[in-house]
Specification:
Oligomer: single chain
Strand content: 5-15%
Order of helices and strands: HHHHHHHHEHHHEHHEE
Strand order of the largest sheet: 1-2-4-3
Structural class: alpha+beta
Radius of gyration: 25 Å
């Protein structure tokens, strides 16, 4: 309950959409006494906040995206209602008061969001779009060789396309699901990232844990298996180490696959000749 109450304030300190959306809600709630339709945006924001809290108190940006449309609506609706109030109360000074309000909001947004970083990133993207930066340099900016690296994901996707045929299922045991999309191949397992298996999520329940993963791989044998070397340690064991240290998984892999060359961040295995 404490998290539910406090996290919107914390988000408003680091994300301008939460700043202006929250201000819109604070204006729309009292104004809803005269028109209950104005509660639509605040109630939507409240529902989004509740879903975020139910998901758990984790601070990564992707856990907050469901609130963005509601916050945008609250901000826009609140701005309209604020202008109407200014016109009604300020009379001939409405324009001056309105411009002062816009200036205050602009300063607040500037203080919250990192516009110099946004400008620098946009210029970097533009240089790549104009061909002034090569693909390797561009991708190297995003991530590193732990958890996710855009460069490693692209390299693995290139390997996947070169070593498999269109329509072949593959399997990546790690945190590089982007290679499925970039390589245009489907996952041979429902566990398209490794953390639930390594952490023992629902172990013992049919279809989950190591047994569930192995059942998936035996039912839909992948043409290629990639084990990520550095992704989870020290929280839990890295994916490649876990896979090869788990006897049922290692025995299945070594019986049907052979090690081949691949990107440095992965151990890549392809199906042995004559096996379907």
């Amino acid at each position: 309950m404490r998290y539910l109450v406090t996290f919107p304030i914390e988000r408003a300190r680091v994300d301008a959409l939460w700043t202006v959306g929250g201000a819109g809600c604070l204006l729309l709630i009292p104004l809803s006494l005269g028109n209950r339709e104005r509660l639509v945006a605040p109630v939507w924001v409240a529902a989004a906040c509740l879903s975020i809290a139910v998901n758990g108190s984790r601070g990564l940006p992707q856990y907050f995206v469901q609130a963005n449309p509601a916050l945008a609506l609250a901000a826009g609706w609140g701005a309209i209602e604020a202008w109407r109030l200014i016109q009604a109360r300020a009379g001939r000074h409405a324009l001056a008061v309105g411009l002062a309000g816009v200036a205050i909001v602009a300063v607040a947004v500037w203080r919250v969001d990192q516009f110099p970083k946004l400008l620098e990133q946009t210029l970097f993207d533009a240089r790549y779009a104009l061909g002034r930066i090569d693909r390797t340099t561009y991708l190297s900016r995003y991530g590193d060789d732990r958890k996710f690296s855009a460069l490693s994901a692209a390299a693995l996707a290139d390997t996947i396309r070169a070593r498999t045929r269109e329509g072949d299922p593959i399997y990546i045991f790690g945190f590089t699901c982007a290679s499925y999309v970039q390589g245009d191949r489907a996952s041979a397992s429902r566990f398209f990232w490794s953390r639930p298996v390594i952490a023992g999520f629902e172990t013992g329940r049919p279809g989950y844990g190591v047994e569930g993963l192995l059942a998936d791989l035996e039912r839909t044998p992948p043409a290629l298996v990639a084990l990520q070397r550095k992704d989870w340690a020290p929280d839990v064991t890295d994916s490649a180490d876990f896979f090869m240290a788990t006897p049922p998984l290692a025995a299945w892999l070594e019986a049907h696959y052979v090690r081949t060359d691949g990107p440095d961040a992965f151990d890549v295995w392809v199906r042995r000749s004559g096996q379907s």
